[in-house]
Amino acid sequence: MTTSARASALASLRQILDVPADDAPAQDAQPRRTSSQRASGREAMPLSPAMAHRLIRRGVPSRSLEPLGRYFGLGKGALAEALDLDRVTAQRKVARDEPLPTHAAESMLRLLELDRLAQETFASADEAAEWLRRAHPMLDGQTPLACAKSAFGAQRAKDILVALKYGGAV
Fold first, then answer.
1. What is d(CA 166, CA 75) in angstroms, rounded to the nearest whole number?
2. Contact (CB, 8 A) for 130 and 136
3. Cα–Cα distance, 146 to 152 (Å, whole number)
4. Entry pTM
5. Packing angle, helices 65-72 and 102-121, rounded to 10
6. Burial level of 30, CB count in 10 A (0-12/13-18/19+)?
7. Residue ranges of the domains in the chain?
8. Alpha carbon 142 to chain centroid, angstroms
């Protein structure tokens, strides 16, 4: 997927979720992107814990699934699997414009958080996206995206990213 297509999908997702762009001033936003991150075309959606909590409490609109799938380059079935949703349930929620179940909304935010950390770790957004989709031996042969279904799996993937970024042990 091209960088501009990912950026477009992310902009749509931000609009649906009503999340300010990371360089827009917000009371609880994460630090602004550096000029090197902007120049490299990296896009991510930093969410503070307070913002994520508000999103979960308010309810994540099911119409956010389409841009999320475009952003990660996942088809409807693969995205539903990543969010631990039945594909038919996901389609029904979108058709009725119902919010996602809490567990699926939390999974969505975990995916976005893992993506942000991967982009901070690797030299390019493409490398980060590739790492997220590649099976990893320290994740029992699963991809980091697949592990993000659970909080514990996502934490394991984050531990690996932190070790890669800072040269620590996992």
1. 33
2. no
3. 12
4. 0.84
5. 30
6. middle
7. 3-166
8. 17
Mean pLDDT of the chain: 86
- In a 13 Å sphere around the CA of 145, the CA atoms on its Cβ side amount to 22
The torsion angles phi and psi of 104, rounded to 5 degrees, stand at: -75, -40
Tens of pLDDT, residues 16-56: 999 876 533 344 444 444 434 443 455 678 888 999 999 99
Structure tokens at 38: 């902007």
**Maximal CA-CA distance, the chain:** 47
Which residue, chain included where needed, has tokens 């991150």? Answer: 37
* Token couple for 151: 């909080």
Q: How far apart are alpha carbons 151 and 41 in whole angstroms?
A: 28
DSSP, res 150: S
Helix, strand, coil percentages, rounded to 5, for the chain: 65, 0, 35
